[in-house]
Amino acid sequence: MNSEKYISHTVMSLISAKGGVGTSTLTKELAIAFSKDVSVCLVDMALSCPAQETLFRILPTRTMEYLFKHKTGDLSPLSWQDLEPYLTPVPGRNIHLLSAKQVKGAYPLPLNRIIQLISSLKAYFDLVLIDTDMASTDVSAKLVELSDRALLVTDDTECSIKNNQRFRRLLTQKQISYDHMHVIANQIRKESQMYSDQEIEALLHIPVLVTLPYYDQVWKYNNSYLSLYEDPVSPLQPSLSSLVDRLFKLLEK
Ligand SMILES: Nc1ncnc2c1ncn2[C@@H]1O[C@H](COP(=O)(O)OP(=O)(O)OP(=O)(O)O)[C@@H](O)[C@H]1O
Ligand SMILES: [Mg+2]
């Protein structure tokens, strides 16, 4: 292990109020990058379209909905024995994946179970990294509250910025601090009206940590064992690398 890069019992979420902006891709890349130095539990809370099992090309044996079936009313921390059957190791990497079934209707996990789950996982991993979507805004808001750092992913469209502004206002209404939030600006389209970092910061009142370039081959990395972070020739490599360095610094306690 590289002793200069060390964090422990840390929670970080990637959140976006608009779909299809690269949240899952970036969560996968961050899991790979952080796993070089620390143990990572990747939790797929993007329940309207859980993508991590596809991105890592693995098939989880059990999904998280069943974790609580024998735990009626019991909110005490889950043991490793409780958790382990649901965690699928990613071959060759210091990553365990906790996945969920896709949901169409109501979110299957109540907030108190999510708190129980995340705080339990935290005890066994250096980093709990969470991929979310807006399947439940309440859940996303709770994850912001539970996280040491929360990364708000946006593309360069008005729609994405507006949805994220709405989400940020919801945090204010719920009196959830977003001082620990940062923006990742991801350019997912070639033709771009990319807002400048200053414009995004002014619109969202959240600092931009990194701006990622458009790359028409990202899908190739999403459908193979390849990683943008590990590929020195991928145009996203330099910005992902500096993002990881900055996050390590921010997460060091
Ligand atoms: N920087 C980029 N340049 C070009 N394409 C990108 C970039 N980042 C992501 N993409 C592409 O955008 C699409 C959406 O990515 P991804 O599934 O990660 O987004 P998401 O926000 O998790 O979406 P969902 O709402 O379905 O959960 C994918 O096809 C991915 O290849
Ligand atoms: Mg996703």
Automatic annotation (TrEMBL):
Source taxon at top rank: Bacteria
InterPro entries per the UniProt record, alphabetical: P-loop_NTPase (IPR027417), ParA/MinD_ATPase (IPR050625), YlxH/NBP35 (IPR033756)
Keyword match Nucleotide-binding: yes
Keywords: ATP-binding, Nucleotide-binding
Species of the source: Ventrimonas faecis
SUPFAM superfamilies with a match to the protein in the record: P-loop containing nucleoside triphosphate hydrolases (SSF52540)
Name of this protein: P-loop NTPase
Database matches in Gene3D superfamilies: P-loop containing nucleotide triphosphate hydrolases
